[in-house]
Amino acid sequence: MSETSAISLRGVVKRFGRVTAVNGLDLEVPSGICLGLLGPNGAGKSTTMRMLTAQAHPDEGTIDVLGYRLPEASKLARAEMGVVPQLDNLDVELSCRQILTVFARLYRVPKADRHAAVERALAIANLVDRSDTRVDLLSGGMRRRLLIARGLVHRPRLVLLDEPTVGLDPQVRQELWSLIDNLRSEGTTVLMSTHYIEEAERLADTVAVMSRGQIVTQGRPSALVREHAGAQVHEVYGSPSALAELRERAEREGWVTRRSGPALAILHAERHDGALPDGERRAANLEDAFVTLTGEEIE
User: Fold this and answer.
1) pLDDT score of 165
2) For strand 19-30 and strand 206-211, is the pairing parallel, antiparallel, or unpaired?
3) 59-77: pLDDT as tens digits
4) What contacts 251, CB < 8 A, 6 or more positions away?
5) Model-level pTM?
6) 272 in helix, strand or coil?
7) CA-to-CA distance for 292 and 283, rounded, in angstroms?
8) What residues does 226 pair with on adjacent strands?
9) CB 13 within 8 A of CB 20
10) Rounded to an integer, what distance in angstroms lies between the CA atom of residue 203 and that of residue 245?
């Protein structure tokens, strides 16, 4: 493991019976960055996150987190990382302050520092005014912020975020994005598994795209867009039969295409000026690159 890496997975394999969920995974997460882990359902993201917290053990390969080999030294690694799960597992009978105090003790924050640690976590999550409110009286967005605060109460070097904004309204999602962005700006290493392509494009320094248990590519979002989707996308709207004919033409012409709702999107459109049918131009984005890399079909 490199001295500058917070996470290193090499040749990691995880099987569940006949199903291979993770298949020879190699992934390096440098310290101090936010890495977005993207992939369709069944790509192996959740299994990877579970192995990083030693809830699941690899069948092959090695995992190092913060310089500790997992699963042998998982307790030492967990003491220096914060984990924000996808599912809400908060104790609904406790208040925000009580939950954070409990976890400050579990993470062995020194007694003299616990009050300050709890107040800092409440402030980070913008929950100071709700500090003595019971969890069952909080909104969904407040509960998600409390989950993040719980994972930060001990000032971890590394934070694992598993689908941090799943199921939240767009307004609440924006609020959580600001919180995550602040973590990155403070130098905390963040590994974020997400289904929201826009989330990764906005927050991640680096994106790793996962498919069938492997990393298929990794890089800065803007670089991946340029390489796999180009600068512009040309979208053509029409009937299903017309779009099917257009796709056949695209295959003959060597155009790279993807479905885009009721349209067919032609990627790298800037290469084909004057040759494309009538349509609408827009800037290429990470979703275009993601679909190109992982395929259009649902597995």
Assistant:
1) 86
2) unpaired
3) 999 999 999 999 999 999 9
4) none
5) 0.91
6) helix
7) 16
8) none
9) yes
10) 38
